[in-house]
Amino acid sequence: MPRKQIFLLIALAAFIALPQLISVKYYLHLSILALIWVIMAQGQNLIQGYTGYVSIVQAGFMGIGAYSTALMGSHFGLPVTLTIILAPLVTAVFALATGYPSLRVKGHCFAIVTLAFNMVIFIVLLNFTALTNGEAGITGIPKPGYGRGAWIDFHDRQVYYYFVLIVAVAMTALAALIVRSRIGQILLAIRQNEDLVASVGVASWKYKLFAFVVSAMFAGLAGALYAHYQSFINPEIFSVAQSLDAILAVIIGGSGTLTGPVIGAFIVVFLPEYLRFADSFRLILYGLILVLATIFMPRGIVGLARDIASRLGAR
Amino acid sequence: MTEILQQIINGIAIGGVYVLIALGLTIVFGILGIAHFAHGSVSMFGGYLTFFLVAQQGYPLILAILVALVVGMVLGVLIELLAYRPVRNANHINAFIVALGLTMMVEGINLQFFGAEQVVIPTDAGRVFSIGGVTLPELRLYVILAAAALILAMTIFVEKTKTGQAIRAVAENRDAAILMGINVQMIPLIVFAISTALGVAAGVMVGSLFAIAPGVGEGLVVKGFAVLILGGLGSIPGAVVGGIVLGVTEALAAGFISSAYKDVIAFVVMIAVLLLRPQGLMGRA
Fold first, then answer.
1. Is the dihedral of CA B172, B175, B180, B184 positive or negative?
2. Is the distance from CB of B23 to CB of B191 less than 8 angstroms?
3. pTM value?
């Protein structure tokens, strides 16, 4: 068996065994959040890592996914499983409307325009109280499944862990499929030289819009899983700061790789917890780690590991 | 009618602040191609420092502003040397990530030194002028005049002085500038010093007109970039027009539509301009 597949199997086994190895309940909670962030980061990676466009609206789309699943459930009485599936589609509609104007500019300007969209989404979630209940948020969002005591009870954290794990693995596989397809090749080409792509007659804007919308759908799905896990959402967690976390997850893990976002997602969820000892210095320390990592480890942890592996192999 | 005029005057004062932020961003972007996202937080640092010196150390306002300007310039130079210079030759995304990290650090420093309380820089400019029903607070007048003076000084510096010419030369063609004997190691430091000084001035204006609190800096830097996109990248007249358009739009939106949604309306205007004129209001096609 090739080394890559062995590695994949070991990683999968580790994720399956994880809840049995964790004795502290709080770490299981963080692991569930980290798996949700894996989906976020894989989406972010499609637009940022593969297409080369840094989008800063991912948390906003996560919010749209979270609010749409909660509101469709409470207003139309739709079953949870259905609203979780519909949430990414609702997000996609918003992503189409925001992606079209944003993608008219490139580079830093694109980043700033998407950031402005995140602020718009945040302000609307905060102020459109008739729909979103403003800062107080929405409480009592139901879990999927058949309620407490059913044969699969999603109130059990272990059950929810495996549920999110299955979705995260499926979404990672989907990301892999996209990346390896012809579309993925074109996205990579856009990252390397967009003018050249256009010059051979490929309508690059369609592919960029595709990557943007798909990445938003990933975020929408992550938001829906988050809403039903926490049973409570408010606008605070869908602000620009969380969009930055998605970018960090991709950069620290290794952008343009499939393993990178997985590692990065766990880091952005667990690192702030471990930095709690630093108390008020936490933000400074977090920023410092980020700056140092970008300067000294520009290709992320995966890039660093590959360099080390190839050096050992060369000997 | 007076109500509209009133909101336009309010908008020009806010717009002046936006122009200063945008000018600081545009010279950095022009020279280094960096979206200096930490600019807003650094500006707020200047505002906080001024407040600290005036309210807690009893400095006169002018002296406090001068000290904050100098400290801000040193901070700007350090940021360039320690954070941006090491990633200069890397992918431009990396510089942006460094900028995000810097934002967190400076926000953290602000929080650590100055606390989470919202602060207002005390001034004794409390008079209110009234011209035909339109009121103009003394402070707002000073802000508009100071912003205009700084914009003028900056324009003269960039257009007329030797250093300004060198800055424009590096922005236009770095390699050719090296061949012409321009010290390209020195130019970014000068640019960051100027940029941060403009930012600190804007921070002081925000701190005395409104208030400084955690998160204000990030909102401000986004507005600054919105101004750049609105006016056209790398254009000083564009930044001036863009800033005033954004400020007036916001004031009118707050006065006549909804103050909660004023930012949304400002961004919608930016996006509309982007759709109709992707190069910005004053940018070259």
1. positive
2. no
3. 0.88
Domain spans in chain A, listed from the N-terminal domain onward: 23-239
Name B130's bridge partners: B135
Question: Is A256 in contact with A171 (CB distance < 8 Å)?
Answer: no
- Domain boundaries along the sequence of chain B: 2-213
Interface test with A, best of B26, B79, B104, B265 (most A CBs within 10 A): B104
**From CA B265, how far away is CA B78, in angstroms rounded?**
37
Pick from A105, A123, A286: which is nearest to B264 by CB? A123
Q: How far apart are CA B143 and CA B209, in angstroms?
A: 8
At which residue do the structure tokens 């003394």 appear?
B138
C-alpha closest to that of B104 among A264, A289, A43, A263: A289
Indicate the pLDDT class of residue B266, thresholds 50, 70 and 90.
confident
Confidence of residue A210 (pLDDT cuts 50, 70, 90): very high
What CA–CA distances, in Å, run from B7 to B226, B243, B280, B282? 20, 15, 24, 24
Phi-psi region at A134: left, alpha or beta (left = phi > 0; alpha = psi -120 to 50): left
pLDDT digits (tens, 9 = 90+) for B128-144: 888 888 888 999 999 99
Give me B248's structure tokens. Answer: 């007036």
**Which chain A residues contact residue B214 at CB under 8 A?**
none
Asked if the C-beta of B86 comes within 8 angstroms of chain A's C-beta atoms, the answer is yes
